[in-house]
Automatic annotation (TrEMBL):
Sample GO molecular function, one term: GDP-mannose 4,6-dehydratase activity
Listed EC numbers: 4.2.1.47
Domain NAD(P)-binding: 4-297
Alphabetical keyword list: Lyase
Source organism: Fictibacillus fluitans
InterPro entries reported in the protein's UniProt record: NAD(P)-bd_dom, NAD(P)-bd_dom_sf
Protein name, UniProt field: GDP-mannose 4,6-dehydratase
Domain of life: Bacteria
Transmembrane segments: none
Keyword Lyase: yes
Pfam families assigned to the protein according to its UniProt record, in alphabetical order: GDP_Man_Dehyd
Principal EC category: lyase
């Protein structure tokens, strides 16, 4: 088997690449910033010629389309860019597959943000989509394109809707990473005030370790049914306040919190947990990592990085 991972140098791409290599796959990838070298293709998702060149050159059996913009809060500031990158970028990938080799199996990555305000509580794939953010709109459009290409052009594509995923290596802009970085800095640099900035702590979210997410993508690339959509989630809800409390327990200093308005979204969903029964029935997948272990690794990762 050979995979082409768009966005291979990103958070999930790094973990998925390692997983596939450990399973004996050949892996190549695309990135927008780096220069081309062996196994790495420079691709702008808006440039279909570059996409076609990468697909023809790598000759993958499977494509995992991970490249895109993922900071939900920033999507309100750059809605056009999110639509172009996440929605039109997905269309361009699928259209390039149609033109080069329609037999390639494709996994496109959406988000639980596709469900939006109508999806409070435990959410399955039949939930009506009412996205709140420009990010959610861009990802729901990408999902619709995936179903369109599966039904109209018989491309073997499955669309995944991962709920919140966390783990070592995640960049800033996400709650667990933001908290862990701030706490690690305060403990490393004793001259810093023991205060961290927070956003909304009352929301309840479904967190899954990125390595479990990568395993689900792998399983669905093999066993997923073309044209179908699958939630990827732990099925457990955790309040953001409790996530912060676990991370604060690793601190040797007593830390205070202050609300930073820039960390608040214009609109937010108070409760969202994923029903992943469809994924489990198709693949037998289940999350293996506990949130406590994942958060400990995130904190230790930031200790080494700050």
């Amino acid at each position: 088997m050979k995979a082409l991972i768009t966005g291979i140098t990103g958070f999930v791409g790094t973990h998925l690449s390692l997983l596939l290599k450990n399973k004996g796959w050949d892996v190549e990838g695309t990135t927008r910033q780096s220069r081309e070298n062996h196994g790495l293709w420079k691709v702008d998702l808006q440039n279909q010629e570059q996409l076609i060149k990468a697909i023809k050159g790598s000759k993958p059996t499977h494509i995992f389309h991970l490249a895109g913009l993922s900071d939900v809060r920033k999507s309100w500031d750059f809605p056009h860019e999110y639509l172009r990158t996440n929605a039109i970028g997905t269309y361009n990938v699928l259209d390039a597959v149609r033109k080069v080799n329609p037999k390639i199996r494709v996994v496109t990555v959406g988000s639980s943000e596709e469900y939006g305000i109508g999806a409070q509580g435990i959410v399955d794939e039949n939930q009506l989509l009412r996205p709140l953010s420009p990010y959610g709109i861009s990802k729901s459009t990408a999902g619709m394109y995936s179903v369109h290409f599966a039904r109209s052009y018989h491309i073997h594509v499955v669309h995944v809707r991962p709920f919140n995923h966390i783990g070592p290596g995640q960049r800033e802009g996400f709650a667990a990473a933001d908290f862990a970085k701030q706490i690690a800095r305060i403990n490393k640099y004793k001259e810093l005030p023991a205060v961290i900035s927070i956003g909304n702590l009352e929301s309840i979210r479904d967190f899954t370790d990125v390595r479990d997410i990568a395993e689900a993508y792998y399983q669905l690339s093999i066993k997923g049914e073309s044209g179908e959509i699958y939630n990827v989630a732990s099925g457990r809800g955790v309040k953001i306040k409790d996530l912060l409390s676990i991370l604060l327990s690793y601190s040797s200093r007593k830390i205070q919190t202050i609300v930073d308005d820039s960390r608040l979204r214009p609109a937010d969903i108070p409760l969202q947990i994923g029903n992943c029964n469809k994924l489990k029935q198709a693949t037998g997948w289940k999350s293996a990592m506990s949130i406590e272990n994942t958060l400990k690794e995130i904190y230790e990762d930031w200790q080494s990085r700050v």
